[in-house]
Write a structure and sequence with these properties.
6 helices; Elongation Factor Tu (Ef-tu), domain 3; alpha+beta; Rossmann fold; 268 residues; 7-stranded mixed beta barrel; 19% helix; 15 strands; 7-stranded mixed β-sheet; single chain; 2 domains
């Protein structure tokens, strides 16, 4: 079974969500559509990019992501084929790049310009319905990627809204890319980098917070390894690293925001 995922900032109350699924069904009725998330913060490309990363837990598929403040402007509509074999479909505004990295990197990129694979007439403000969803369905039907438009150079794409964390000696400089409903702070550190750096459970890490004194936390596997109300750092459940409080909010405790820079100093 072919799988298409849909991710957007439309809101679950929007009829646009159902219309996109209907558009896919009209082109390829046997596709399984998975609604990954439609409650993204409006216009928040960083949040959308981080959410789209989670398609690593979905079987090979065609992943549409629409967080598109520049819809109808000169920004390109693109398809990225990744080395895992998936296709990422959406605007060229950086939103697809983090997912491409966790899915093995970019194999090739094409612009969507061929009107044979669009719903016409194309609305200048609803490319999700008229360009992106149809492209996913046609790809799933076996249309060759080259048929959609011109091949693009990878290094000409709009950059990601966040890079991967940087380590110099024993200091990791990280960025907050998500805060979940419990107040846990998720960083731009991948599990594989965390492991490659040799960080182990029960190790101590000194965390330097924006405008706050340093705090020391323990590396754990789960929340209950520290007492109620204590801080900890651990691998999150979607491939990144998080700082949390056992049954509390780390973000509220230390006034952390998305985009905050946090430095981690590793113990020997």
């Amino acid at each position: 079974m072919k799988i298409v995922t849909l991710t957007s900032d439309f809101g679950v109350q929007s009829q646009g969500v159902g219309i996109m699924e209907a558009m896919i069904a009209s082109i390829s009725p046997h596709i399984k559509v998975i609604h990954l998330m439609h409650g993204l913060p409006s216009f928040d490309i960083l949040a959308a990019a981080r959410t789209l990363e989670t398609v690593r837990y979905v079987p090979l598929g065609y992943h549409v992501c629409i967080c598109d403040p520049g819809v109808g402007t000169s920004r390109k509509a693109i398809i990225i084929k990744v080395n895992r074999g998936d296709y990422l479909i959406g605007p060229d505004n950086g939103v697809l790049i983090p997912a491409s990295r966790v899915l093995g990197g970019i194999s090739s990129v094409y612009e969507i310009t061929n009107e044979n694979y669009m719903n016409l007439p194309v609305s200048p403000i609803f490319h999700g319905r008229d360009i992106f969803s149809p492209a996913a369905a046609h790809l799933a039907n076996g249309v060759d990627l080259k048929s959609f438009g011109a091949k693009l150079k990878k290094n000409h794409l709009v950059e990601s809204p966040y890079d991967e964390a940087d380590r110099i000696a024993e200091v990791i400089t990280a960025k907050v890319i998500h805060i979940n409903k419990f107040g846990s702070v998720h960083l731009n550190i991948l599990h594989k980098d965390w492991d490659n750096w040799g960080i182990k459970s029960a190790q101590t890490v000194v965390i330097s917070l924006p405008n706050k004194k340093d705090i020391t936390v323990i590396v754990c596997d789960t929340f209950g390894e520290v007492a109620f109300g204590e801080n900890l750092i651990l691998k999150d459940d979607y491939g990144r690293v998080e700082i949390a409080v056992n049954q509390g909010s780390f973000a509220n405790r230390y006034s952390i925001n998305i985009g905050s820079i946090i430095k981690l100093t590793l113990s020997n």
